[in-house]
Specification:
The complex is a heterodimer of chains A (86) and B (361). Chain A has 86 residues and is an alpha+beta fold. Chain A has one domain: Ubiquitin-like (UB roll), CATH 3.10.20.30. Chain A contains 2 helices and 5 strands; from the N terminus they run ββααβββ. Chain B has 361 residues and is an all-beta fold. Chain B has one domain: Methylamine Dehydrogenase, Chain H, CATH 2.130.10.10. Chain B has 1 helix and 27 strands. In chain B, a hairpin with a 7-residue loop joins strand 14 and strand 15. Classes of the chains: A alpha+beta (86), B mainly beta (361).
Chain lengths: 86, 361
């Protein structure tokens, strides 16, 4: 099952440990995370389930095209965001 | 009088208390994070809305014992297929207003992109007011208030009847419900938008209402800081009369209404439109005691040279007595008055830009 790891920037607001979850796509793997940690969902997705504009997903070090990207059991999804401004 | 003040800023929530004749910061929360709205509830709890940008709008609640915990923020329902032409997103942009609903546990939240949400459990869970959101006329609302989306910034609940609600939207005028939000109607007449084409100038729905405030003891008296003027209504926001005596300018964002005296209100005038700075670099408050027929310009204790402080729409507060006021600015200036605005003092704090100042009445 893929692993999902999160930027440390999230840890200021809520626990976001790396998790091994079921899911054949990035979006479904995240859905498995949210099933266990529902408060995380709003930090990463908007009300309509779209990835927030400044949240970026990588799969095995490569930028993911979107939530529909397929993932395999050995893949690692990394969720981070670009901090900007002052 | 209220001895506790909450100040929501670009970099956190600050709690001030009155001690020994002066005000001091006695609590800091969410340091580094933008706070867009705050409300002290009747049971001693506090709601604080964060505008995290990257991570969206979030809502936290402090229990009466002082412990903060995140609660579910208002959330729009899935956008139906037949709403594809809706010009506004069905996703929460910012919590712009939090107001008590007049019955235990009830809170209203005004948001960008113009959604009104209701909680009946002290802010722990929320439901979108669908009669307002699904009204065809909402698609005519426009977004010019601090963003590209309509901003529902003012929610006035009649203290005598919690079913009677008035909301102010930038830009969509003043809307009223007398059935706790089951139905809504656009009510404002008498405002004008001087920048609009002549045929639309007096159209109620194009009026850029910057802020509404009513007199708690006489809630039919409503004050408005509008984009191009100050207005007053004596019939609950249905008809409006411009207050042409306002000085030193008629532009601004904030208004505060005296809770007991329907003839007294305060505004924070600035140079209009694009510049948005105090007139002549002097920060002042305009006060009327006669229903807006005349205004005093109050400046004692406020910076009178090279002051470029703008007062945003939720950053001018009055307490439940009408004697104590707070004024917060985009430069992080915070001033308090104990005499209805006659004199102002500044606590020993240099704060981040202030979005909201509010007494914990």
């Amino acid at each position: 099952m893929p692993t999902v790891a999160f930027t440390s920037a999230l840890h200021r607001f809520l626990p976001a440990p790396a998790m091994v979850v079921a899911g054949p796509t990035v979006g479904q793997a995240l859905a498995s995370v949210f099933a266990e940690r529902p408060m995380l969902r709003g930090y990463l997705l908007d009300d309509q389930g779209a990835l927030r504009r400044h949240v970026v997903l990588y799969v095995n070090g490569q930028a993911a095209a979107g939530l529909a990207d397929p993932v395999g059991p050995a893949d690692e999804i990394y969720v981070f965001q670009a901090l900007t401004g002052g | 009088m209220t001895d506790r003040l909450h100040v929501g800023t670009r970099k956190g929530l600050f709690e001030l208390s009155r001690r020994g004749g002066g005000w001091a910061v006695t609590g800091t929360h969410f340091l580094g994070d933008p706070v867009s709205a705050v409300l002290a509830l009747e049971d001693g709890a506090v709601l604080a809305a964060l505008d995290l940008g990257h991570f969206g709008a979030r809502l936290w609640r402090r229990e009466p014992d002082g412990a903060w915990g995140e609660v579910a923020a208002p959330c729009f329902p899935p956008k139906p297929d037949d709403a594809g032409d809706d010009p506004h997103p069905w996703t929460l942009g910012k919590i712009w207003a939090l107001e008590p609903g007049g019955v235990p546990g009830r809170v209203w939240a005004g948001t960008m992109p113009g959604g009104l949400f209701r909680s009946d459990d002290g802010g722990r869970t929320w439901a979108l007011n669908t009669p307002l959101w699904c009204m065809p006329d909402r698609r005519q609302w426009t977004g010019v208030a601090g963003g590209e989306q309509p901003a529902l910034h003012s929610v006035l609940v009649d203290p005598r009847d919690p079913a009677a609600i008035r909301i102010g939207v930038s830009t969509a005028g003043v809307w009223a419900s007398n059935d706790t939000g089951a139905s809504w109607r656009l009510i404002n007449r008498g405002m004008y938008a001087e920048y609009m084409p002549p045929e639309l100038r007096e159209d109620p729905i194009v009026q850029d209402v910057h802020r509404l405030a009513h007199c708690a003891a006489r809630p039919e008296v409503v004050w408005c800081q509008h984009h191009n003027g100050t207005f007053r209504s004596t019939d609950g926001g249905a008809t409006w009369h411009e207050l042409t005596a306002i000085r030193p300018s008629k532009f601004g964002f904030a208004v505060a209404a005296h809770p007991c005296d329907p003839d007294t209100a305060w505004f924070a005038p600035a140079v209009k439109d694009e510049r948005r700075i105090p007139v002549d670099g002097k920060l002042v408050v305009a006060r009327t005691h006669d229903g807006g027929a005349s205004f005093e310009v109050l400046s004692r204790g406020l910076p009178q040279q090279h002051a470029y402080d703008l007062v945003w729409r939720h950053a001018l507060a009055v307490d439940a007595t009408g004697a104590r006021l707070a004024l917060g600015s985009t430069s992080g200036g915070l001033w308090l008055s104990e005499d209805g605005g006659g004199t102002w003092t500044m606590p020993d704090a240099r704060l981040p830009p202030i979005a909201v100042a509010r007494f914990a009445d």
